[in-house]
Amino acid sequence: MGFRSSNFAPDGPSPQSRVGTIPNGDYVVEITECNFVPVKNMDSLSRESIQYLMDCGDEDAKNGTVGVGDPSINLFTKFRVIEGDHSGYEILNWCLYLHSKPTALRIGREKMAAMGFACGYPDWDNPSELVGKVLMLETQIRSSEQYGDKTNVKRFKQAPPGAAQPTAPAVTVENDDDIPF
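^ that's the sequence the OP posted. Answer follows.
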């Protein structure tokens, strides 16, 4: 399954791991993990969601790779702060990639587009292609009685010129040897 940010673009285009909340602010981060995970509530795609995807030009919906009744999926991304006092902290983020409700689907896809543009990689075919990319996150602490405080990604931004670069090489996606004809 691939993703094209242009279909969902918002307007405008290992040190030791540390966990816990970090103060609200902007952080230069590296994507250390990025993959599809099932949505926990066992939600599945609706006709309305498929129609929304087709109207947006989604290739998987158009060619039938995804369809009504398929399970909902999140794009899970793990970021590691690579500059400043909070270097080494990890920030976790989930974006809805497939969902039964078109509004939730639109919000998730717009977040994914913003992340793709921010890291300079708006179009990808496998989420692992984003591993090793550097960008800036604007964070905000979200409090919940049920789950406690959590560092929430508020906005994705391009990393400033001269920002730190990843310490580990980016994961490369292996090409298969199939002949393209």
